[in-house]
Amino acid sequence: MRLERRFRIILYGIFAALFATGAAWLIANQLKDAPRGELWQQISANLLMAHGGAAMVALLLLGALGPVHVKRGWRTRRNRVTGALMVTLNSVLILTAFALYYLASESFRPWMSDIHLALGLGLPAFLLSHVWIGKRDKSRERR
After folding, report:
1. What confidence score (pLDDT) does residue 143 get?
2. Which helix (H) or strand (E) holds 134?
3. pTM to 2 decimals?
4. 118 and 96 in contact (C-beta within 8 Å)?
């Protein structure tokens, strides 16, 4: 069920960019109240814009995964647990991002932010486990 090499590189690159900009934003956001806070405020805003742009590309790539990779994987009953987990985690990330940008009230925002941050920072581990289990299962089938 391996993805085409070029698509895989782009997908992993976008996920890496999302992780890097999200983690860097988290740090910059914490430094807004420190000396030179205005600089960190500007860095934070730029990181958030880059994160949003990468997220738009990720939405396109995730949409392309559905009809090919996800559908085929589900039909062949391969790597279903981590695959379903990846679909769920990415769906929650999309929903919380939408809520943070468009719906978040002051009472609702901290919850959405915490969920989004926790899942976003944890997603690389889930992605690596999904790939590793998929490769492990494929090598077992060859035996």
Report:
1. 58
2. helix 109-142
3. 0.90
4. no
Tokens for 64, please give them: 């392309």
Structure tokens at 51: 């994160």
Tokens representing 9?
Answer: 């590189």
Distance of CA 6 to the CA centre of its chain: 19
CA angle, 101 then 93 then 39, to 5°: 50
Compute the distance between CA of residue 47 and CA of residue 67 in angstroms, rounded to an integer. Answer: 31
Q: How many contiguous H segments (helices) and E segments (strands) does the chain have? A: 5, 0
Question: Splitting the chain (143 residues) into consecutive groups of 10 residues, what average pLDDT does each group show?
Answer: 91 98 97 92 97 98 93 90 96 96 86 96 96 83 63
Q: Give the up-direction half-sphere exposure of residue 121: CA atoms within 13 A in the CB hemisphere.
A: 10
Residue for token digits 């468009």? 102
Report the Cα–Cα distance between both ends of the chain, in Å, rounded.
Answer: 17
Residue extents of the structural domains in the chain: 5-138
Predicted pLDDT at 105? 83
Cβ within 8 Å of residue 75, ≥6 positions away = none
Q: What pLDDT does residue 49 have?
A: 97
Site of tokens 């289990």: 133
Residue 82 is encoded by which pair of tokens? 């981590």
Type of residue found at 140: R
